[in-house]
Write a structure and sequence with these properties.
This protein is an alpha+beta fold. It has helices spanning 14-23, 41-52, and strands at 2-7, 31-36, 55-61, 66-71.
Length: 74
């Protein structure tokens, strides 16, 4: 399944915390798209994923938003 997490207008560390909380409710293989406005999330969320074994499938940015697509691991 694919899910989207709206973490717009949240500052560090809240996008990471919200992603962590959402991933706890998902199953292995699910995909979570995190949408943020804090540019620091582009480094923070992938770093958290590496530590916890989740896979970042894609990151992209627009003028004012950051998108991080994560595949949930065990």
């Amino acid at each position: 399944m694919k899910y989207t997490l709206d973490a717009k207008r949240l500052l560090c560390p809240m996008p990471v915390i919200r992603a962590q909380d959402k991933i706890k409710t998902l199953s292995v293989g699910d995909v979570l798209e995190v949408v943020c406005t804090d540019p620091g999330a582009l480094q923070d969320v992938p770093a958290w994923c590496r530590i916890n074994g989740h896979k970042v499938l894609e990151t992209k940015t627009t003028d004012d938003e950051v998108f991080i697509i994560i595949e949930v691991a065990e």
